[in-house]
Amino acid sequence: MRSPLGLAAALSFVLATAAEADDVVRIGWLSSLTGPLSSAAIAENQGVRYAVDEINKSGGILGHPVELLTRDTAGDPVKAVNMAQQLVFSDNVKFVIGPVNSGESLATVPALSKAGVLNIVIGSLEQLTDPAKYPLAFRTINTNTQWISTANRYAIDTLKRSKVAIIGDTSGYGASSAKTAEALLKQMGVTPVYSVLIDANKTDLSDELNKAKAAGADVVMPWTAATGLCARILNTRGDMGWNVPIVGHPAVMALPIKALLNKSEYWKNVYASGYVSTTFQDGKLPERTQALVDVIKPALGGKIDFTFWWVALGYDSMKVIAYGAEQAKSLDPDKIKTVLEHTSNYPGVYGAYSWTPEQHNGFPDSGMRMNAADTFQDGSYQPAPY
Amino acid sequence: MRFLGGLGATLALAALPLAGVNTYQLHVASLIAVYWILIAGLNLVVGYSGQISIGHVGLLAIGAYVFAALAGTHDVNSWLALIASGLAGGLCGLLLGLPSLRLPGFYFAMATLAFSLIVGELALGLGDLTGGGVGLAVPGFPPPFASPAGFYELSLALAALTTWLTWNVARQLWGRALLAVRDSPVAAAGAAISVYRMKLTVFVFSGVTAGVAGGLFASLQSYITPDTFAFDIGMFFFVCIIIGGRGGVVGPLLGTVVLTLLPEVVAPLARLGNFFYGLLLLAVVLLMPEGIGPLLAAIAARLTRRGRPESRVVSPDLDRLRAALADEPR
Amino acid sequence: MWPVIVSGLAVGASYATTALAYNLMFSTSKVLSVTTGQIVMLGAVAGAWLMNSLGWPALLALPGAILVGAAFGALTEWVAVRRVLKRSDEHLWILSTLALATMTQQAVALVWGTEPRPFPRLLPQSFEAGIADQKFWLPIGVMIAAVAALEGFYRRTMWGKLFQATSEDPFAAEARGVDTGRVRMLSYVLAGALGGLSGFAAGELTFAYFALGLSMTLNGFIAIAVGGLGSSVGAVAGGLALGLLGAFATYLFGGAFQQTIAVGALMVVLLIRPEGLFGARGMRAV
Which residue of A262, A303, C96, C223 is 20 to 30 Å from A99, comparing CA positions? Predict the structure, then answer.
């Protein structure tokens, strides 16, 4: 009974993946649209899709229309690898954007690069790009180090603090970010007075914050993407009446935090790493950001109640592929790689990207900007005081 | 007879790379084979001895991390690393089973659940060994098993070997003893079956297969992080067996193939994911508690000559009867 | 030190109330339902939804959450337990309740979202109350009230005695004209109501979060296993012990190994004394 059924299953599986026509450019998009941390992926998806529409309206890439193949990985690394393989070998794509989560990306980046696919990386962990190991992987998002050093410089150099308390969470991202934060602080000559990893679901943080206060901390730096944990840190600080600045991960200024706060003023004196592109300067957003906001706002339902740089990131990641192909006058990933490696200040919305043969992280340090958390408006923020 | 059938099927499957199947399909086929190595062993625990283990993902994780740490970080030969993962899985199976198998059913299930959560926590916490949240890169096997086709043949061979082993256990006295333990532990004990020893042996065996599967899984994924081993996979393994039908080997195998292929082929299912598995499990438990395997077997038996009632005619051998009746009483 | 103790007691109290729900369901059906933790989660989520999205005041949302819990308890009984018990296979109910629990968790994730959402302040109280904050004392209060109510129920009311009769010997109870099916359904409804109340009371502590269910199932179970199945005192003792152990493990060793220490320590207790601290060693006729 096993033999015929097994063969039948195999046959139907093979026949289900027929080859397709060659006029379109197929671009794969690995996105965790459901599952944990899906809010970022959903916003980035808006950006990617809008860019595809825009490209197709003006004739496609080198005359070929773009076909976007979206795959929902649900935050599962096993699914991410399966879908990456499917995109490459069954759907014959030559370009892939994503995945969104660093955990998924760690598994897919090597596989995609080995398969000769140009991969636009949108996860922040440092290990995801390496010109030698993954020659076809180019990153558009900032790196984790950029997030952390921007915040560190603000806390130490601008706010002139010296006794740092680091709070990470027990997830993979949180634990490694906290470690990197400590290392980068030590490079600046500062040793944290208190450092702890908290389970993201822990309900009461008064103990940890009291210990931080007892250690004499004059700034608290959270490195966690977990909304609940960020909110609890802010609540505990406020309930304790401890007026210490909080400087850290952008999750601390995400809009859902506002609803979780005991009092809205607990959002004051909170600063996070943000971007020039989504910071109001004298009441106005940078030109390119405002232009994108204006055209995409109707498609988003008329209001923007999530972080806008996600949308800009998705939009830029798609446009970078188009740019590379047009400059190289070819759809060959290797030729596009050469073009990208000699790109300097490509003007995206989210940032101005530069890559070199030795450096595949495109986002410039100058694109980072500290934001004040309680100034959320239409996805962007006011700058933190200098 | 059955053995030849199984051998034939294995050879046919081994020819798959020659049938023009692409790398992605080989990847999924390898994944099915790797899952099946674990599930075949787990089948003995759940299907045959009736222990509800929902935390086998913890043993998978242990096998995976041992392999990754040895073969990846410490450059040990991949084959030795694979053997080590099997042994580690068996050892942890022993450590988990020794205390927990004495507990009644639900307690045991919760103990396995707790075990998988603890393994997850340790994977994150023991950063020096496991790379913590960032995880570990995992190398492949030396040629000819380095290519996707080669790896597929390797996992297929190990899967076939595991199937043969578990089939033997199921067919021999052991298998019947296990079924007795599952259906009525008291009666089994009354028949001089060492219930605890049997359960423990089977559980350790399932630990070894889980460990080996973990090593292969890590190599196939090429990178492992703690969130690769979420509770959901543990549920998945378990559901494959129940859907396929406890007490059989072919049923769970079919269950594994179908449930692994389903999200790949039916895209909306990927979104529903675990809701779908829960729904499927509930439906099977309520409507077909014996699983789909026995149902299909019944249909198959009906279709073949052996199963049809008309063919089971009993006709007496009258000559022999007369001769027996004519025998002088002794 | 005091914040550690108080927060440990509060979390432990919610474990204890979950354990009491386990007890209730077990008492009439000998079933330990995996859905117990999901009931607590639903209480918190339903409460948050009623108060935040629909704008109901806390006084109305409380019975609302209790009703949701009770309905889910009834659903558990009707779908996952009743039919399965008829087949008299020892462990199928583990599978059916596990399936229902998974479906519930995923359905809530799809509908409510995967981020923890806010649970509003129930009683007017300043946020600087420290260890006297209601988010600690509401779960503890609910636990004490539940224990008192259950003891009164078992000892003084007819239904309570029916529960005890059904749990001790269902056949004899049926022979005396007790509709065991209805008694079982009632016990599940009560357990659901209790779970819903517990979730609502702990909402300020946990936020309304879809993933609460699984860990509550496990922790509530450990509480009742260590405390002893069938004993209310055991449920309280087990729950508080687990809560305090977890809080102190984090306090002394940091959060990275909290689960390992707490769960591991209690598994050890289970091995030494499988019937729990206050449980009775069951004899089974063979």
Answer: A303
**Assembly ipTM:** 0.80
Strand partners, A273: A370
Strands A368-372 and A270-275: what pairing?
antiparallel
Evaluate if pTM is beyond 0.95. Answer: no
Q: Tell me which residue range forms the domain holding A166.
A: 145-280+370-375
Listed ranges B214-218, B248-252, B265-269, C59-63; the one with the highest mean pLDDT = B214-218
Residues A161 and A133 in one domain: no
Contact yes or no for B133 and A33 at CB 8 A: no
pLDDT (tens digit per residue) in A24-81: 899 999 988 877 667 788 889 989 999 999 999 998 898 899 999 988 887 888 889 9
Mean pLDDT computed over B128-142? 82
Report the residue from A6, A107, A171 with minimal CB separation from B133. A171
B323 assigned to some structural domain: no
Is the Cβ of B107 closer than 8 Å to some Cβ of chain C?
yes
Chain A hits for C117, CB-CB cut-off 8 Å, are 256, 259-260
Q: Are A105 and A30 contained in the same domain?
A: yes
Chain B residue closest in CA terms to C30: B106
Residue C92 domain-assigned (yes or no) = yes
DSSP 8-state code for residue C256: G
Question: Are C99 and B110 a contacting pair at CB < 8 A?
Answer: no
Residues of chain C positioned with their CB less than 8 A from the CB of B279: 99, 103
CA angle C191, C196, C200 (to 5 degrees): 150
Phi-psi region of A212 (alpha: psi -120 to 50; beta: other; left: phi over 0): alpha
Rounded-to-integer distance, Cα A145 and Cα A181, Å:
8
Is residue B318, in this structure, part of any structural domain at all? no
Statement: residue B211 has pLDDT above 90: yes
Q: How many domains does chain A have?
A: 2
C145: nearest Cα among C224, C181, C198: C198
Overall domain count for chain B: 1
DSSP H helices in B144-230: 148-171, 173-183, 185-190, 195-221
At B174-188, the pLDDT tens digits run 677 777 777 777 777
The verdict on C285 touching A (C-beta cutoff 8 Å) is no
The CATH number given to whatever domain includes residue A32 is 3.40.50.2300
Tens-place pLDDT, residues A133-175: 899 999 999 999 999 999 999 999 999 988 999 998 877 788 8
Cα–Cα distance measured from residue B219 to residue C267, given in angstroms and rounded to the nearest whole number: 33
Q: Where are the beta strands (DSSP E) in chain A?
A: 25-31, 66-72, 95-97, 118-121, 137-139, 164-169, 194-198, 219-223, 246-248, 270-275, 343-347, 352-355, 368-372
The angle formed by the CA atoms of residues B91, B93 and B99, to the nearest 5 degrees, is: 110
Domain that holds residue B183: 21-312
Alpha carbon distance A316, A190 (integer Å):
36
Q: For A109, which residue in chain B has the nearest alpha carbon?
A: B223
* A302 and A349 both lie in a single domain: yes
Chain C hits for A34, Cβ within 8 Å: 110
What end-to-end distance do the CA atoms of chain A give, in Å? Answer: 75
Residue A204 placed within a domain: yes
CB contact under 8 A, A206 and C130: yes
Instruction: Give the CATH number of the domain where residue B238 resides.
Output: 1.10.3470
Q: Which residues of A touch C215 (CB under 8 A)?
A: 201
Residues A150 and A139 grouped into a single domain: no
Claim to verify: residue A176 and residue A275 sit in the same structural domain: yes
pLDDT score of A314: 93
Find which of B126, B186, B282 to mutate to test the C interface (most C CBs within 10 Å of its CB): B282
Nearest CA in chain B to C224: B107
Partner residue opposite C274 with nearest CB, options B54, B103, B286:
B103
Question: Are A230 and A243 within one domain?
Answer: yes
pLDDT of residue C90: 63
